[in-house]
Design goal:
seven-stranded mixed beta sheet; about 350 residues; 15 strands; 10 helices; binds NADP nicotinamide-adenine-dinucleotide phosphate
Length: about 350
């Protein structure tokens, strides 16, 4: 076993987007595992907007304690096991730490199956959280019906880029993505098959939606909130559905109330439903099977933006909150340079 472990230490809760004061990269002791845990060598680290909420306070998990390594979803290889049924060499996924090595407990630990020749990072960026969230959000929460108009914000991101393609595959009449740059909008149309894309940094979203879908938006997949979310809320069709997946634009403000303007939703008899994938894990097998089929058939395109080296995790993480930042699709860190 390598003697050294580097980690991003969560020193203090961030104020706004001041992550430089919150996190510090340094040598750190090798995690000691307790009974019921495995020690893994991290291969990939997922960077997620939700990590910002984990820093702030309780979510679906307790708040991250200060003074130890920052938490994040990882894929890693077991190097030592005190968990029945898990042996060194196996590839697993779970909530680990921003470090070379993580101690993972059995709760929420998943064994990664043989990827059949696909890169291992598809297990993180396509088949697990992002794909499952996009599938459940479009199908179960949005309840999209063939022919309907579907709009997604954060459209060039990890969940959004998959949600738009899933909506298309499920028969949406029109798929419109909202993203933060001309380049991202061009990518959504040319590469991912979206019908239209709106650059919220240079275009008037509310007005463009009125032009593109005068009868209104049937299903809105909400990823960002803020001004973009309210511009879509103002354009909902009667009895439309809003699937609230995330509110990235509002995550760095720990004090302002978070949410959409519900008045236009009320006037249009809309249904707004929030969801967290953790409550829908029983839907993952269907989601993974469909995503695998569509990916094989070329009906889902998956893009990962991979930062090489643990030391670059914070710089990459900060881009999640920068409108128009260049990353497209799933943002992650390749911790082990040899990981495929
Ligand atoms: N409910 C669940 O179970 C679940 C699971 C996974 C993720 N989520 C949520 O889903 C959302 C998307 O996650 P993701 O991993 O796919 O992230 P992502 O979209 O890959 O990355 C975040 C993107 O948000 C956009 N953004 C940042 N600040 C913005 C602002 N002020 N206004 C508008 N857009 C802004 C940026 O894209 P542009 O350059 O286009 O602005 C940025 O690239 C997040 O809110 C996340 O918390 C929820």
């Amino acid at each position: 076993m390598v003697a050294s472990n580097r980690a991003w230490i969560f020193e203090r809760r961030p104020v706004g987007s001041d992550f430089d004061s919150a996190l510090n990269f340094r040598e750190y002791s090798m995690p000691a595992i307790a009974d019921g845990q495995v020690l893994v060598r991290n291969l990939y680290l997922s960077l997620d907007p939700a990590n910002r909420r984990w820093m702030a306070g309780p979510t679906y998990m307790p708040p991250i304690p200060t003074g130890g390594p920052m938490w994040g979803f990882v894929i890693g290889q077991v190097v030592e096991s005190k968990l029945a049924g898990y042996a060194p060499g196996e590839i697993v996924a779970g909530v680990g730490t921003w470090s070379d090595y993580s101690a993972l407990s059995g709760d929420g630990l998943d064994r990664i199956p043989d990827m059949g020749g696909l890169p291992l990072h598809t297990a993180m960026g396509l088949f697990r959280g992002p794909g499952g969230t996009a599938y459940v959000g479009v199908k179960d929460i949005g309840q999209l019906k063939p022919g309907q108009t579907f709009v997604v914000s954060g459209a060039a991101g990890s969940v959004g880029s998959l949600a738009g393609q899933i909506a298309k595959n499920l028969g949406a009449g029109q798929v419109i993505g909202i993203a933060g740059s001309e380049e991202k909008c061009a990518w959504l149309i040319a590469e991912l098959g979206f019908d239209h894309a709106i650059d919220y940094q240079t275009e008037n979203v509310e007005q463009r939606l009125r032009e593109l879908c005068p009868k209104g938006v049937d299903v809105y997949f909400e990823n960002v909130g803020g001004a973009v979310g309210n511009a879509v809320a103002a354009n909902m069709a009667p009895f439309g559905r809003v699937a609230v997946c995330g509110l990235t634009a509002q995550y760095n403000d720990d004090h302002a109330p978070i949410g959409l303007d519900v008045m236009p939703l009320l006037l249009n008899n809309c249904t707004m439903q929030c969801f967290v994938l953790y409550q829908y894990l029983d839907r993952l097998p269907e989601a993974v099977a469909k995503l695998a089929e569509w990916y094989r058939d070329g009906r889902i395109k998956y893009h990962a933006d991979i930062a090489d080296g643990l030391e670059n995790a914070l710089a990459a993480f900060k881009t999640l909150f920068k409108p128009g930042a260049p990353h497209k699709g799933k943002l992650m860190v390749r911790v082990d340079p040899a990981a495929n």
